[in-house]
């Protein structure tokens, strides 16, 4: 990445070339760019806007008009010594660290002056981990709070507790959190290493390649989700020459200690003393416990074998540990369609040729045997034998023309692998499926150059001269190719959406009505349709059109519009041949998953780029919509009122409501375009009646849209861009107090995934960008049911139960100090021993509640999925809210009153068996502490729904640890060693040998727990919840589940709804093929006799 620079300047790249190459910078001659250099035309595509506001504002501040801004992140430098020729050092890090490529950045320290392209997502290294991690942890208010308490405890005048009572828990929290962060960062290091060590990830300046005309393939799946290979070339010159990223009372009572301090000053000190004493209401152990629980819950998701996709060896992955409980509170799910609900694997199923339909499955017959075709793909399956017979007979000329069109009219690239087998690179799964179908029926695409296409037609090889290639784009929705046949005839082949093809058919075209009928039938079966047609062109007509095409191609103005206009002139008076029908199957279990989530009162919105009819039919096929629903479309939304219930309706808004959201961006882009052209925006622009007049009306329209949509049972948004998907999610978050989840599989879903409260990525056919941007990832949509109804619900219930109990036990523990202060002259003296306070939340009560937060479950996973209504309490926030918090507060107050005043009353004017009165402070502290430990550990036992050996061991072990440690630190031996630290010498043994004190402890524990037992019994008996009812009959349901046979594999039914064209791929390779520089003529190579395999690289984008 360094060296001498080339004497001649590197030519400028256009904006489009920069946007397209991103990862690869290619030297090329300045040429007319078919995409234009001024960006998209807002008059043609007025609302397709993926830029953020910041990006637009930054663009408005750019340099003078007419100068394209192209930021290239990484450059490789070109070496061109006069004698030795050129050389390139790509990704050679050792080479870039040579002394001649170093620059000073601080004093005498140097670093490479060239930026590397290594991906870095980790936070720390060996030197920065400790300081950076501590800095990040002390940025949290909780840690700073406890650090401030520790500093207060160090001050002798105000401290009421030893400093170690706060230091030990704080160090534990910081240590455990640091370990967790270290583990996470090590995982990021490993992932970075994996990505950085992959092949073909370098930023590179292409000078030449081993392919003809220095052609190379670039994969951008990690950037935009597109898995098709982009084609780039180096300069012809380099190719030829080389060929090689609060106040106290003003008076306080105190014992005279010989210090001349005023009452107000002593009151001030007591105030801070109580701040320290009462800090255990919200102890630092709460935060570390929550982190441990969240980490454990995330691991349970990762280890769930029922969410493991065996076919691709892909387990579920929780990429965050902070959102698990929110998984049990989801109200809205926003889903992509292609690759999320469907498999994004296309299969040629049916076709109609000259009015005759083929592809119906014939009973009692096997799939078609293509052994007669040496080029056939072994994976291709077809049911209708009659089509093969029709083709092989050679009598049906329309059928031969049909498959000839499929083999010629495309932008597929072909190459040979190491076994001399044909490998196709298709711009979209649809196009790959069509070329593969033609291949199996005897019309095999063999090779292409910049001006010829060679195909094998029923074992007869023919070469056609390609005169023009009219490529597909999202506005045209079609593509055409003009060919000169070997006999001199000139013919145009065209394929595209029925909506655009039928507008361009000749009045004399046959088969229009019968083909439309077949399209309706294919649509009822939710197949993706495509019309095929042709037109014969005279030499004079072609020559006239070719001159116009050449002029439009080199136009420096709006080249795209000029080309489209020229294309319109030739794509008319077409003759219909037939139509194809491709199936994009739903993923397994999608309808059942959507049905279960709907029963859990989760609303599912599908956001797709497909047109309305296609999106609607997918809604029916996945049971998101049904025939009993009343469906409202986007253009009718403004007329719909709330005079009727909408809970049984569906809504399919088109792009129009979302366009209003982006109206301001449209105006920004128009200003930007005019600025680049050196013009000023018009002073007054006529107001569009369909657009909002002001911000208030704009907001009202948004509120109306959200209210309308949220009243519906299902919503499908079609024709939406990636930015509009994110805007829909943000609207629901803005106007509805609900937890949202977005799920998608491609780079075009990243905005939506990041906008929602929780993002889920599916590792499918469109790269890993969605997964890398998500919070949770897995391989199939059906796993979403288990993620929410099982893991999400359990996580929410466990966290709520943990928090309720944790606040209760700390209120019960801490408020004893408050009651004791009435008898200690408000001196801020503590009610317990120092070490009991230190170890209470760390060792005596932590393990049982931690296990409840990790393992507890009211019902098992099967019943959680069988009864989706169990999910409702999470959506309603019924298990932890202000009401639950105050219940825990009053429960803690009651328990603290019992724990203090019963032992206090028992110690008042009492005498022990030996004639001594054990009514001292230390004995009282021991009895209160023992009562408290027994009470809170028995309370968590009452809270536990799912008992295991571990839970039982944790409760018994916590009680045993308390008594064991208490006897140890009250022993004489440890007092001799640390006389100032351990001052309760012999208290435990002296106190607990008094039987009436044991009776006091038992009485205290009994009175504390009795109301809880009574309330629980009455609530579950008189006012049982859905969960209580299921728990009551849990064994019955579990036995039913065990006896139930395994269900048969799901077979998706056919919905009787209209489907539309879905020719969904981005612009193809026409510019590359037709430029005359894309492919070098190759010598004729004899094609192998064994049947060749096909590898298809699908395209990520939808229309």
TrEMBL record:
Recorded catalytic activity of this chain's protein: ATP + H2O + phospholipidSide 1 = ADP + phosphate + phospholipidSide 2
Residue ranges annotated for the P-type ATPase N-terminal domain, each copy included: 111-167
One Pfam assignment: PhoLip_ATPase_N
Ranges for domain P-type ATPase C-terminal: 771-1025
Ranges that cross the membrane: 144-164, 271-290, 802-823, 835-855, 885-909, 921-940, 952-978, 998-1019
Gene Ontology CC, one term: trans-Golgi network
EC top class named in words: translocase
GO MF assignments: ATP binding; ATP hydrolysis activity; ATPase-coupled intramembrane lipid transporter activity; magnesium ion binding
EC number: 7.6.2.1
Main location: membrane
Localization terms from the record: Membrane
Coiled-coil boundaries: none
Stretches for region Disordered: 29-64, 1036-1059, 1080-1103
Record key words, sorted: ATP-binding, Magnesium, Membrane, Metal-binding, Nucleotide-binding, Translocase, Transmembrane, Transmembrane helix
Record-level GO BP terms: Golgi organization; phospholipid translocation
Keyword Metal-binding listed: yes
CC cofactor: Mg(2+)
Bilayer topology term: Multi-pass membrane protein
Compositional bias per record (Acidic residues), positions renumbered to this chain: 40-63
Record family assignment: Belongs to the cation transport ATPase (P-type) (TC 3.A.3) family. Type IV subfamily.
Name under which the protein is recorded: Phospholipid-transporting ATPase
Organism: Esox lucius (Northern pike)
């Amino acid at each position: 990445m360094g060296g001498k620079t080339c004497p001649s300047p590197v030519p400028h790249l256009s904006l489009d070339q920069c946007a397209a190459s991103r990862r690869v910078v290619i030297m090329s001659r300045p040429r007319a760019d078919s995409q234009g250099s001024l960006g998209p035309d807002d008059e043609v595509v007025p609302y397709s806007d993926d830029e953020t506001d910041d990006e637009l504002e930054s663009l408005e501040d750019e340099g003078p008009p007419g100068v394209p801004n192209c930021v290239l992140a990484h450059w490789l430098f070109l070496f061109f010594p006069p004698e030795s020729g050129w050389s390139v050092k790509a990704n050679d890090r050792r080479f870039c660290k040579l002394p001649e490529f170093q620059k000073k950045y601080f004093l005498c320290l140097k670093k490479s002056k060239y930026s590397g392209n290594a991906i870095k997502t980790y936070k720390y290294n060996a030197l920065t981990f400790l300081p950076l991690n501590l800095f990040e942890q002390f940025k949290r208010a909780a840690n700073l709070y406890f650090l401030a308490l520790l500093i207060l405890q160090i001050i002798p005048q105000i401290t009421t507790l030893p400093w170690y009572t706060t230091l030990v828990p704080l160090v534990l929290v910081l240590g455990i959190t640091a370990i967790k962060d270290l583990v996470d960062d090590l995982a990021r290091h490993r992932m970075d290493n994996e990505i950085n060590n992959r092949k073909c990830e370098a930023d590179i300046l292409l000078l030449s390649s081993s392919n003809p005309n220095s052609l190379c393939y670039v994969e951008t799946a990690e950037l935009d989700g597109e898995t098709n290979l982009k084609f780039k070339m180096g300069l012809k010159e380099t190719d030829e020459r080389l060929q090689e990223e609060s106040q106290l009372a003003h008076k306080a009572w105190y014992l005279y200690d010989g210090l001349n301090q005023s009452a107000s000053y002593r009151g001030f000190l007591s105030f801070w003393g109580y701040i320290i004493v009462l800090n255990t209401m919200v102890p630092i152990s709460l935060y570390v416990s929550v982190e441990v629980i969240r980490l454990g819950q995330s691991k349970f998701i990762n280890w769930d074998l029922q969410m493991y996709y065996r076919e691709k060896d892909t387990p579920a992955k929780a990429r965050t540990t902070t959102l698990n409980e929110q998984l049990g509170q989801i109200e809205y799910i926003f889903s992509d369609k292609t690759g999320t609900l469907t498999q994004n694997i296309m299969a040629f199923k049916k076709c109609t040729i000259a009015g005759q339909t083929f592809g119906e499955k014939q009973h009692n017959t096997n799939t078609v045997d293509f052994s007669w075709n040496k080029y056939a793909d072994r994976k291709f399956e077809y049911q209708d034998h009659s089509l093969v017979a029709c083709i092989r007979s050679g009598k049906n000329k329309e059928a031969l023309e049909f498959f000839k069109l499929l083999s010629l009219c495309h932008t597929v690239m072909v190459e040979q692998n190491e076994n001399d087998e044909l490998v196709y690179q298709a711009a979209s799964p649809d196009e790959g499926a069509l070329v593969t179908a033609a291949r199996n029926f005897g019309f095999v695409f063999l090779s292409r150059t910049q001006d010829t296409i060679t195909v094998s037609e029923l074992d007869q090889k023919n070469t056609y001269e390609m005169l023009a290639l009219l490529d597909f784009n999202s506005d045209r929705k079609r593509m055409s190719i003009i060919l000169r046949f070997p006999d001199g005839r000139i013919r145009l082949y065209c394929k595209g959406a029925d909506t655009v093809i039928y507008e361009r058919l000749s009045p004399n075209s046959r088969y229009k009505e019968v083909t439309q009928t077949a399209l309706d039938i294919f649509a009822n079966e939710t197949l993706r349709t495509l019309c095929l047609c042709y037109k014969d062109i005279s030499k004079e007509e072609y020559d006239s059109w070719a001159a116009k095409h050449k002029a439009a191609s080199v136009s420096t103005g709006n080249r795209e519009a000029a080309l489209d206009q020229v294309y319109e002139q030739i794509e008319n008076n077409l003759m219909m041949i037939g139509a194809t029908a491709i199936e994009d199957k739903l993923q397994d279990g999608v309808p059942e998953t959507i049905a279960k989530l709907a029963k859990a009162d989760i609303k599912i919105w599908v956001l797709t780029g497909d047109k309305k009819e296609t999106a609607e039919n997918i809604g029916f096929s996945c049971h998101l919509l049904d025939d009993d629903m009343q469906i409202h479309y986007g253009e009718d939304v403004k007329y719909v009122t709330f005079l009727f219930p909408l809970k049984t309706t569906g809504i399919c808004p088109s792009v129009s409501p979302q366009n209003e959201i982006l109206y301001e961006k449209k105006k920004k882009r128009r200003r930007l375009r005019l600025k680049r052209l050196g013009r000023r925006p018009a002073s007054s622009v006529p107001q569009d009646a369909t657009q909002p007049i002001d911000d208030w009306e704009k907001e009202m329209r948004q509120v109306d849209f959200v209210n309308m949509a949220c009243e519906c049972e299902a919503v499908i948004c079609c024709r939406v861009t990636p930015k509009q998907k994110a805007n829909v999610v943000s609207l629901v978050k803005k106007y509805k107090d609900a937890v949202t989840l977005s799920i998608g599989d491609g780079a075009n879903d990243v905005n939506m995934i990041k906008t929602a409260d929780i993002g889920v990525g599916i590792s499918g056919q469109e790269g890993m960008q969605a997964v890398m941007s998500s919070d949770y990832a897995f391989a199939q949509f059906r796993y979403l049911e288990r993620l929410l109804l099982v893991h999400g619900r359990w996580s929410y219930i466990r966290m709520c139960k943990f928090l309720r109990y944790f606040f209760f036990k700390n209120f019960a523990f801490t408020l004893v100090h408050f009651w004791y202060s009435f008898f200690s002259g408000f001196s801020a003296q503590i009610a317990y021993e120092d070490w009991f306070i230190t170890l209470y939340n760390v060792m005596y009560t932590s393990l049982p509640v931690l296990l409840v937060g990790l393992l507890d479950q009211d019902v098992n996973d099967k019943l959680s999925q069988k009864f989706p209504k169990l999910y409702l309490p999470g959506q309603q926030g019924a298990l932890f809210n202000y009401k639950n918090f105050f219940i825990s507060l009053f429960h803690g107050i009651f328990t603290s009153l019992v724990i203090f005043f019963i032992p206090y009353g028992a110690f008042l004017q009492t005498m022990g068996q030996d004639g001594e009165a054990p009514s001292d402070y230390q004995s009282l502290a021991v009895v209160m502490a023992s009562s408290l430990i027994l009470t809170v550990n028995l309370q968590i036992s009452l809270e536990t729904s799912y008992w295991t050996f571990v839970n039982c061991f944790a409760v018994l072990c916590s009680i045993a640890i308390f008594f064991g440690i208490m006897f140890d630190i009250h022993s004489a031996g440890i007092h001799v060693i640390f006389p100032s630290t351990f001052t309760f010498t012999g208290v435990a043994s002296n106190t607990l040998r008094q039987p009436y004190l044991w009776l006091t402890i038992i009485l205290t524990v009994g009175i504390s727990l009795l109301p809880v037992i009574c309330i629980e019994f009455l609530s579950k008996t008189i006012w049982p919840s859905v969960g209580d009812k299921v728990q009551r009959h849990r064994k019955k349901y579990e036995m039913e589940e065990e006896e139930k046979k395994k269900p048969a594999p799901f077979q998706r039914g056919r919905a009787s709804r209209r489907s539309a064209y879905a020719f969904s791929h981005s612009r193809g390779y026409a510019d590359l093929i037709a430029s005359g520089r894309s492919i070098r003529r190759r010598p004729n190579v004899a094609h192998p006799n064994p049947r060749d395999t096909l590898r298809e690289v699908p395209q990520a984008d939808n229309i």
